[in-house]
Amino acid sequence: MMVVLRALHELTACWKKIGHYNMKCRWIPGTGGYRESSMLNDPVHSIGDQYSIIETDEAIASANVVKFEVQLYKARDEKYLLDLQRVQGPQFLFLDLCAALLAQLQVI
């Protein structure tokens, strides 16, 4: 899960931990995400923390917000299955996010 969280961090996505292997996430394309916000008020957002969602007026007002859930499953041996489910937002932006996440994870 730490590898997935690092990849989300690199894509400037925000997340909230629901369970040990389940996260609610938000991504706004073309913004600095929480990296820019964290410089202003230094909220809790490190990879090991329980949550990293920072609500800003820009994030709430944007029509390009993609909200999604991430669920990690362990298969046999040392194989893992990552399930991404779009909750809200444009479908094509979600597909762009999925492609970027897979590239960040060095799967493709």
Automatic annotation (TrEMBL):
<keyword id="KW-0547">Nucleotide-binding</keyword>
<dbReference type="InterPro" id="IPR028375">
    <property type="entry name" value="KA1/Ssp2_C"/>
</dbReference>
<keyword id="KW-0723">Serine/threonine-protein kinase</keyword>
<dbReference type="InterPro" id="IPR001772">
    <property type="entry name" value="KA1_dom"/>
</dbReference>
<protein>
    <recommendedName>
        <fullName>non-specific serine/threonine protein kinase</fullName>
        <ecNumber>2.7.11.1</ecNumber>
    </recommendedName>
</protein>
<dbReference type="Pfam" id="PF02149">
    <property type="entry name" value="KA1"/>
</dbReference>
<dbReference type="GO" id="GO:0005524">
    <property type="term" value="F:ATP binding"/>
</dbReference>
<keyword id="KW-0808">Transferase</keyword>
<keyword id="KW-0418">Kinase</keyword>
<keyword id="KW-0067">ATP-binding</keyword>
<feature type="domain" description="KA1">
    <location>
        <begin position="59"/>
        <end position="107"/>
    </location>
</feature>
<dbReference type="GO" id="GO:0004674">
    <property type="term" value="F:protein serine/threonine kinase activity"/>
</dbReference>
